[in-house]
Amino acid sequence: MELRINQKAYQVDADADTPLLWVIRDDLGLTGTKYGCGLAQCGACSVLVDGNVVRSCVTPVAALVGREITTIEAIESDEVGKRVVATWVEHQVAQCGYCQSGQVMAATALLKHTPAPSKAQIEAAMINLCRCGTYNAIHAAVDALAKQEGA
Amino acid sequence: MNNRRFARTAGWLALPCLVAAGLLAWYVTREPATPFEQEQAGARFEPALVSRGEYVARLSDCVACHSLAGKAPFAGGLEMATPLGAIHATNITPDKQTGIGTYSLADFDRAVRHGVAPGGRRLYPAMPYPSYVKLSDDDIKALYAFFMQGIKPANQPNIPSDIPWPLNMRWPIALWNGVFAPTATYAAKPNQDALWNRGAYIVQGPGHCGSCHTPRGLAFNEKALDESGAPFLAGALLDGWYAPSLRQDPNTGLGRWTEPQIVQFLKTGRNAHAVVYGSMTEAFNNSTQFMQDEDLAAIARYLKSLPGDPQRDGAPWQYQAVAAVQDAPGAHTYATRCASCHGLDGKGQPEWMPPLAGATSALAKESASAINITLNGSQRVVAAGVPDAYRMPAFREQLSDAEIADVLTYVRSTWGNNGGTVDANAVGKLRGHTDPASSSPIILHMR
Q1: What residues of A are in contact with residue B397 (Cβ under 8 Å)?
Q2: Where exactly are the structural domains of chain B?
Q3: CATH of domain B194-433
Q4: Model pLDDT for residues B333-385, shown as the tens digit of each residue
Q5: pLDDT at residue B444, as a whole number
Q6: Domain boundaries along the sequence of chain A
Q7: Best interface-test mutation with B: which of A46, A49, A52, A59 has the largest number of B CBs within 10 A?
Q8: What is the pLDDT of residues B209-234, one digit of tens each?
Q9: In angstroms, rounded to a whole number, what is the distance separating the alpha carbons of residues A142 and A135?
Q10: Interface residue of A37, A52, A58, A64 to substitute, partner B, most B CBs within 10 Å
Q11: Fewer CB in 10 Å around end: N or C, chain B?
């Protein structure tokens, strides 16, 4: 099957029910997306599909033919994604960094749908787990991005 | 004179009592007739018959109760609850000391089809002999050949039941049998074709689908054992799960399923409507996936012939779209915990992750299945030796009773679902019963 990932076409030989995460990490070598729990619980594997945040560990690859997938490797070619990464650096959000690829994806998807989210909306949307507990920094960074938009 | 008259009267009274007691004693210990009376024990069987018997054992899902994971196959041990105390499935390997190695074909037949062990001792009807009685003579013989020659003897003594004296006396079961257990093997219905009859045979007989899917009466009897009774396969609550209707009910049954979809479900464990979960996972892992395609087609044909009950089932479900995430309690939990797999639109990712829109567990009045799977997740579905890629996680440690009640109420009242609200107390109760560390865990009833 053919998958569109980061605006590039890939020929993929995988069973219909293979999780997207397996394909992008193991078959295509795009290892920026992380495996956390494998049960859609933590969000470390988040990628964008047509601009929506999706947990790739529970997404059968067959459903993605003909759709546009974006991973962390290409997030800075997205205008919103670029701002998110810059703000992430500015706020020094990452600690160990393992969950941050997914956090950036979640923040990008939120800001694409809701350019100036309220604190409550940020709290409701930024639900990926972080073992280091960088939640305060994450919320501060997204809040700063929301305010940029409002300004 | 008076004394003599009294003695004579007493004698006249005692005589019928003695006769009645004698008749009762005969009735409750008698060994039912079997066509295999003349067969000798210790016969050798052709490999073809043994492998045919192995298939009948798959159809009948003998391992479900008679095997424990990690122990010798068919050596027994599964604990099952009765209203009086726990009983344990027995060793049915051909071990001469602790198993059924000394059984003749006639003994085996009486046990499997009539629930009577050698010597006239009655088995508890946890052994589904009211269903197995439908097995044909040929299938019984093949099954016997498999158990005598196809599996290794295992020396594992049976575990005595927990039922105290005098309730542990077995003879009253003979009276129960007289009322509730049929005695005839399956007889083909001449007005139906061969496919339908084969399906009816498997569903009613070896498949013993009614053990879980047919509601039970006060005496723990299945309320119907074939299509002549409306309660047959009409859905039943047991072991903390709601086994849905297998009749043509569009909401709580198979009304929206096509025959190929029923076949696909039993063969691969999943289809566009649902994925096996709860007790059905075991039935799938051990039994239905091993059934031959023509047998699955027969089951589908038969089940599609069982009419639904609009009175019980209500108006047929139709999908209703909802605008984004609402403010309803449970909506946010749904969006954050459930939607990654089941979709914000409730449509799931067929056939890998089941839709909740229109799901039986969201339409049935009984909320047990919805609560149970949310608390405890699903077991591994192993199809053709390959474990499933996706699995429902357990939310026992992550969500409170109130949060689970709210999110299930949301699921059961959105997208056209009308199963109704879920009460936090019901979640708490099932949480306790399904916690292996609790003092009141659910012990399996029937399989």
Answers
A1: none
A2: 24-180, 194-433
A3: 1.10.760.10
A4: 999 999 999 999 999 998 899 999 999 999 999 999 999 999 999 999 999 99
A5: 61
A6: 2-73, 75-150
A7: A59
A8: 999 999 999 999 999 999 999 999 99
A9: 11
A10: A58
A11: N
